[in-house]
Design goal:
It is a single chain. The chain is α+β, with helices and mostly antiparallel strands and 504 residues long. 24% of the residues lie in helices and 36% in strands. The strands form 4 sheets. Strands 6-5-4-3-2-1-13-12-11-10-9-8-7 form a 13-stranded antiparallel β-sheet, covered by helices on one side. A 7-stranded mixed β-sheet has the order 14-15-16-17-18-19-20. The protein starts with a helix and ends with a helix.
Length: 504
């Protein structure tokens, strides 16, 4: 017969086990739908949210221009925004009045944008125009970040409970769902059921600034949860991360969950011309009819990002691989047709900004050597690793090992007619850029550092111009003509004149 003390401890252990099971099982047994419904309740309840048609909020924040900064790992160039935004909760509508401060302008820039379904409107300086589809995709992404949109989308789709994970010491439920072929993962705080974080797959095939990265993760952190009237809880701070880098942060300083919305706020003018048919970034046309002969054997093709080529006796050298694989496939076909008996010897990727190397994958797919500054190997390698499985390009299908020729000092590719000197610029703005010098033609290709606005006869950034001049002086180059990634050929004397005038 068992000892009474043994029976007592055995019964106590059994009671503890029963209590533990009854406490744990409800948490583990919750479905994704039940967790999301609990989140709606924590945000104020479905009865309240069923009556919310629009949200109007005023927020201030900053945006980091990840693709434009001097260093792809930061610090990043920032702009500062104050926004009044009205958006639909159940209808796809958004209206924004924005005031933006950035380093390129001495005064704040005011703008107004509106989207109603598939149509958009932009207003600058009192002039309205149809919102191009490329711009609209950025606002489409912004609408996806709204916490109520993520929760309601999770309830409307076949959501899945993926277990629990600890973030910053706090346990969260993971709930995921697929929408438009893209996975959305929500982190719901286990203790209060509020949305703390979302990780969503992004794929922007119409956006030239994001297309090079294919399918990537955008992470949004929601904090400063605030209790508003009617017991509505809502995060007052949103922090957005793209590609693992801090992209945007906003703080809401005023919000109305039952605003009076004028019927005309989302009205698209009937006489507004329709937008042009959207074009995939990979289908961006290359207008080879606009080709310019800079000097014998040296050519440039103007566009959003210029491309060019150099004729040598034993082959062709390509200047730049921007935008997309498809854009450069057109360029390579043009060169093959024009020079059927000459191979492509190399491509020069002269800058690190990712729209400038967005099409470098096409050259890597064909095993063409990539000449670039030694500091650019990492970012170009990351562009090559990007997931383009949703719209596979040539590199996605083959993924050969890229052939890098990394530049950290002057390198010469000789030729009897058009020898090329490859020079690292090593300035502040041009820290990761290379220039191309053609001694026999007295021509300089200045990467991204010479940007001339022919409409008003001015240059962007005197600092950039000073770095080009410093490189020319250091290497004692004899330059008569300069061209660049955004600039058609012009006399070098114009650059010297602009620097002289900057001192007046």
């Amino acid at each position: 017969m068992a000892h009474p003390d043994f029976l007592f401890w055995r019964m106590r252990k059994l009671i503890y086990l029963v209590l533990l099971v009854t406490w744990v099982v409800p948490i583990q047994a919750q479905t994704a739908q039940e967790i999301l419904q609990a989140t709606v309740k924590a945000m104020g309840g479905s009865e309240k949210w069923d009556g919310i048609d629009y949200i109007r909020m005023k927020h201030a924040g900053h945006k980091y221009w990840l693709e434009q900064s001097e260093n792809p790992d930061g610090p990043f160039i920032a702009s500062y925004e104050v926004v009044e935004e009205t958006r639909g909760v159940r209808q796809y509508q958004v209206h924004r009045k924005e005031t933006t401060h950035q380093f390129q302008s001495k005064v704040a820039r005011d703008s107004e944008v509106m989207i109603n379904g598939e149509k958009g409107l932009m207003t600058f300086s009192g002039r309205s125009l149809t919102m191009p589809y490329q711009f609209k995709t950025g606002y489409d992404e912004w609408m996806r970040y709204a916490p109520e949109q993520l929760i309601f989308s999770g309830l409307a789709n076949q959501s899945k409970f993926e277990g629990k994970v600890t973030v910053e010491g706090t346990e969260h439920f993971l709930v995921s769902f697929i929408k438009d072929e893209l996975k959305h993962t929500l982190y719901i705080n286990r203790h209060n059921y509020l949305l703390a974080q979302a990780e969503i797959e992004s794929f922007l095939p119409y956006d030239v600034f994001n297309y090079p990265w294919g399918k990537f993760i955008t992470k949004i952190k929601y904090s400063l949860q605030w209790l508003y009237p009617e017991d509505i809880r809502y995060p007052s701070q949103w922090d957005v991360y793209k590609l693992g880098k801090h992209f945007r942060s906003i703080t809401i300083f005023d919000i109305d969950f039952r605003p009076k919305v004028d019927e005309g706020l989302f009205e698209i003018p009937a006489d507004l011309p329709p937008d042009r048919t959207p074009v995939l970034v990979d289908k961006t046309p290359l207008n080879t009819e606009g080709i310019i002969e800079v000097a014998p054997g040296i050519h440039t093709i103007p566009g959003s990002w210029y491309v060019g080529h150099i004729e040598q006796n034993d082959g062709i050298l390509v200047i730049e691989g921007p935008i997309s694989s498809g854009y450069n496939a057109q360029h390579l076909k043009f060169l093959k047709d024009k020079y059927p008996n000459k191979p492509i010897k190399a491509v020069f990727a002269t800058s690190d900004a990712w729209p400038h190397v967005g099409g470098i994958r096409q050259f890597a797919a064909q095993g063409i050597p990539i000449y670039t500054h030694r500091l650019n190997q990492e970012i170009i390698s990351n562009v090559l690793k990007a997931d383009h499985s949703l719209l596979p390009d040539a590199y996605q299908k083959s993924k050969p090992t890229p052939k890098f020729q990394l530049i950290d000092k002057e390198v010469v590719i000789d030729d009897p007619v058009t020898p090329v000197h490859i020079l690292p610029i090593n300035g502040e703005g041009g820290e990761r850029m290379i220039a191309l010098y053609f001694p026999k033609q007295k021509v300089l290709y200045a990467s991204d550092l010479v940007q001339y606005n022919g409409r008003n006869g001015s240059f962007f950034s005197p600092q950039y111009l000073s770095e080009v001049k410093a490189m020319v002086d250091k290497h004692q180059l004899d330059v008569e003509t300069v061209f660049a990634m955004h600039t058609s050929p012009l006399p070098w004397s114009k650059v010297l004149e602009a620097l002289k005038n900057n001192n007046k």
